[in-house]
């Protein structure tokens, strides 16, 4: 089960968070209050805010299925009619390093040499009568290798590392 932390202004003043029950005759109706209590109970959420966030009510909630991640929760005076909930959460984001790859710098390519190399390779290939019986696969491999080798020879490259570029 993933770690879940859900926070926000739920505006349901008639839930008693000490025992996760709904008070008699709730202001916004029994159904919505009971539904939130059901969601909290079925998902093993713990409500972490212990101080009132508006008047005597806890309306702004921090719900989690892993209370060990919550180091501290407190309220501070806010700019509206609600207190601000400040929560210190002990988590570490997963980061992924992009694989390095070569990036061609096309504007610095020696296009004349590139074209001459490819023209010469194809001319030589067609002059050789043995190549007339090559399979489509063999011709494709020759074509692809000629293009790739010529591009690598005449188009400068940089190696990208994540979002940074470094000379290759």
UniProtKB/TrEMBL annotation:
SUPFAM superfamilies: DNase I-like
One example GO MF annotation: catalytic activity
Residue ranges of the TM segments: none
Domain Endonuclease/exonuclease/phosphatase residue range list: 3-85
Matching InterPro entries: Endo/exonu/phosph_ase_sf, Endo/exonuclease/phosphatase
Protein name as it appears in the record: Endonuclease/exonuclease/phosphatase domain-containing protein
């Amino acid at each position: 089960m993933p770690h879940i932390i859900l926070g926000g202004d739920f505006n349901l003043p008639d839930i008693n968070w000490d025992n996760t029950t709904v008070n008699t005759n709730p202001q916004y109706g029994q159904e919505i209050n009971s539904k939130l209590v059901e969601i909290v109970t079925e998902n093993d959420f713990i409500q972490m805010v212990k101080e009132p966030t508006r008047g005597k009510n806890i309306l702004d909630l921090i719900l989690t299925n892993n209370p060990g991640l919550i180091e501290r929760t407190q309220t501070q005076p806010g700019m509206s009619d609600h207190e601000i909930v400040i929560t210190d959460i002990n988590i570490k984001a997963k980061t992924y390093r992009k694989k390095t790859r070569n990036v061609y710098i096309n504007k610095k390519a020696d296009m004349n040499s590139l074209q001459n190399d490819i023209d010469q390779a194809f001319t030589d290939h067609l002059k050789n009568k043995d190549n007339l019986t090559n399979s489509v696969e063999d011709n494709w491999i020759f074509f692809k290798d000629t293009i790739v080798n010529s591009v690598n020879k005449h188009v400068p490259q940089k190696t990208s590392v994540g979002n940074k570029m470094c000379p290759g």
